[in-house]
Amino acid sequence: MTDYQINLTDTDRIVLKETMNLILPPVDELPGAGDMGLASNAEELANRIPKYGLATRRVLDAIALDPSARAEGGFAALDQDQRNSALKTLEASIPETFDNFVDLIYIVYYSDERVHKRIEWRTGPLQPLGWELPPFNPQILETTAKRKPFWRKA
Amino acid sequence: MSIKHPKTDILIIGSGASGAAVAWRLSKSQFNVVCLEQGRWIKPEEFPNEHSDWEIQARTNWAFDPNVRGLDVDYPINVDESPIDPLMFNAVGGSTIHWTAHTPRFHPSDFRVKTLDGVADDWPLTYDEVEPFYDAYDELMGCSGINGDPANPPRKERPMPPIPIGPDGERMAKAFDRLGWHWWPSDSYVNSTPYRGRQACNNCGNTGLGCSRGAKGQTDVAIWPEAIQNGVELRTEARVFRIETDAQGRATGASYYDADGNVNFQPANAVVLAMNGIGTPRIMLNSKSDAYPDGLCNSSGLLGKNLMFHPYAMVSGLFQDGLQTYKGPLANMILCQEFYETDPAKNFVRGYTYQVARSSGPISTACGYMFGRVPWGAEHHAEFERRFGDVTVLGVIGEDLPEEHNRVELDPKLTDSNGIPAPKVFYKLSTNSRNQLDDAIENAVTALNEAGATQVLPTRFLKVAGWHLMGTARMGEDPNASVVDRWGQAHDADNIFIVDGSVFVTCAAVNPTPTIGALALRTAEYIDNKRADLKS
Question: Closest-CA residue in chain A for B367?
Fold first, then answer.
């Protein structure tokens, strides 16, 4: 993979953070994804993975061009309903790009240990612990094993 | 700079499911064997399951799709004309690094579809001829399972008992029982017990990301150590770009790039091609010569044609009983072959298998790998919690039929990092396959509802599903209608063999690797027993 630098401005970073708060709003004791400080993680991954970089750049550019966001104060100055409305309009107009952008936000959010704790997911690598499962119990075969062979002779 | 190596008896290209099998079998013979692999060894600590960011790696540098991974060791594939993305991996072990190791066998009828159902072609061999090699490959790779499946012929005792099917598997099994449908624990090359120095699986889940415990049947751990100990030379980062031939069209060896970009030539008495159903025709098409103006051993004109995938659909069931369905090997619990054979009452021929699969971690859940993307915004958290660890999937593997217009060609512009032409895939989903999938979806909805799903979500067609690459150098008795004979030996040259999924005449409705491995062992036995002339 080649690096794709999305070159965020300070304004972009503010919009990214606010957008993340809309996509993944506060829940229980956790603030929204932007307020959790995850925008820098998103920026890092967007710079690393072209698919996410292109999506982020395009979404932020589109938000900047949205008439409602061009009022004084920009996107950050809009109220919650206006921001949600702007994002839903964007989602409808560039669905594939928007989905990639949402995936990026989900990836950084669900990589965070605070989120893992809340959803009761064991953080860290899958190995070496793995998971416990009861061993196979042949009694489960009782019904299906009674069936006469029905494979087709050839 | 060009480097010429000492001549070997047998040169194998590709170290995956089939190349490793040939190397292992011939390592017990008197032949000198060299294997060239374009990838490198992957160390256990490199596998994503050893890292906290395993779910990110699964979408980036460890993605199934080489076009997404984009590593130097991969080659790009032009998929502009294909609704299915081919998947593969390039390393010692090939795509067995990445596979989920679900290992059902072909049925006897799968070798006789022309005779039985009047479609495609019969194979030039029978199930009974392949059976001993299935057994040998199961033993080599390590198969967990149990005898007695009424949908299949009796078989030898499995080397290991079944892996746990888990409470989610039991739930589906009981639903199939209530419907009167077949089900059986899947044969899997996943260790349920320690096996030949490799550990038992500890149910971490993501068999598709390589196994650092050695609990999955990957050829890098299951086969290569013994083959190398027996004297086979496995040369890595050796990217073959051309099979060289003499004026009579017999192979003289292969040319390849090493890691420094040097051109090397490895002479050999015979060449065995094991680069998968896309990689093999790619290099053969790139090996044109005066003897083979249309590509290596292509007098039939069928090289690259009749590409078969298994077009996949999946139907996901959402449950509300907190069974934590991410626990256990991802795609290995039970299978259902109730609808495997042709039913004259239906609008398609041949049939399909259900492969029952699990869910995965939080990123996969949110991004919708198993049950659609969780909506963003105010509803997100409640919906995520409803889905996380509560999804069971019925994957549909339908039998694709060979069609010449489905094919692999060389792309005129796209190349890999060494400038070797990349493959371009042309594929159209047939009406027969579409009808199969539609029928399977309808029945899967019934099964998941019976199991107690509170919501069922069909995915009519998976784009990222080209796991199985088959048919592009088919086997047959007639040199005008096939590329290789019943032993995998090219009709056009008696010292060129093909052992990967390219040789499949038809593809059945099951994962192909046990059949690929069995046929590779069979070809190797033929070489050992009948081709002493290939020994220097």
Answer: A103
pLDDT per residue as tens digits for the range B470-481? 999 999 999 999
CB proximity A107 to B under 8 Å: yes
* CB B37, CB B375: distance < 8 Å: no
* Residue A73, min C-alpha distance to chain B (Å): 23
Picking from B389, B164, B404, B220, the residue whose alpha carbon sits closest to that of residue B300 is B404
Question: Residue A78 — pLDDT band, cuts 50, 70, 90?
Answer: confident
The pLDDT, as a whole number, for residue B326 is 96
Q: What is the C-alpha separation between B296 and B495, in angstroms, rounded?
A: 12
Do B212 and B45 meet the contact criterion of CB atoms below 8 Å apart?
Answer: yes
SS3 readout for B383-396: HHHHHCCCEEEEEE
Q: Dihedral angle at the C-alpha atoms of B380, B384, B386, B391, nearest 10 degrees?
A: 140
Quote the tokens at residue B475: 């086997």
- Chain A residue with minimum CA distance to B153: A151
- Determine the angle formed by the axes of helices A50-65 and A80-93, rounding to 10 degrees: 120
Query: What is the spatial distance between Cα B181 and Cα B145, in angstroms, rounded to a whole number?
Result: 19
DSSP collapsed to 3 states, B12-31: EECCCHHHHHHHHHHCCCCC
pLDDT band at A1 (very low <50, low <70, confident <90, very high): very low
Distances from the Cα of B118 to the Cα of B28, B122, B444, B485, B532, angstroms: 41, 9, 27, 22, 39
**Of B438 and A72, which is predicted with more confidence?**
B438
- Give the Cα separation of B210 and B96 in Å (integer): 8
**Which residues of chain B, if any, have pLDDT below 70?**
1
Q: In this predicted model, what pLDDT tens digit does every residue of A104-120 receive, in sequence order?
A: 999 999 999 999 999 99
Buried b (16+ CB within 10 A) or exposed e, B141-166: bbbbbbebbbbbeebeebbbbbbbbb
- Could you give the 3-state DSSP secondary structure of residue B138? helix
Q: Give the residue among B213, B266, B223, B219 at the shortest CA–CA distance from B241.
A: B266
> Which residues 202-221 of chain B have a CB within 8 Å of chain A?
202-206, 212-213
pLDDT of residue B520: 98
| pLDDT band per the 50, 70, 90 thresholds, residue A76 | confident
Ramachandran angles phi, psi of B3, nearest 5°: -115, 130
**Set of chain B residues whose Cβ sits within 8 Å of the Cβ of A150:** 150-151, 182
- CA–CA gap between residue B375 and residue B380 (Å, rounded): 5
**Which chain B residues are Cβ-neighbours of A106 within 8 angstroms?**
363, 366-367, 374
Q: Nearest-CA neighbor of B322 among B155, B167, B496, B477?
A: B167
Grouping H, G, I as helix, E, B as strand and the rest as coil, residue B2 is strand
* pLDDT greater than 60 at residue A3: no
User: How far, rounded to the nearest angstrom, does the alpha carbon of residue A152 sit from its chain's CA centroid?
Assistant: 47
CB neighbours of B477 closer than 8 A, spacing ≥ 6? B124, B485, B486
Q: How far apart are CA B464 and CA B454, in angstroms?
A: 27
Residues 6+ apart with CB under 8 A from B429: B83, B84, B311, B461
Q: How far apart (Å, rounded) are the C-alpha atoms in residues B78 and A132?
A: 42
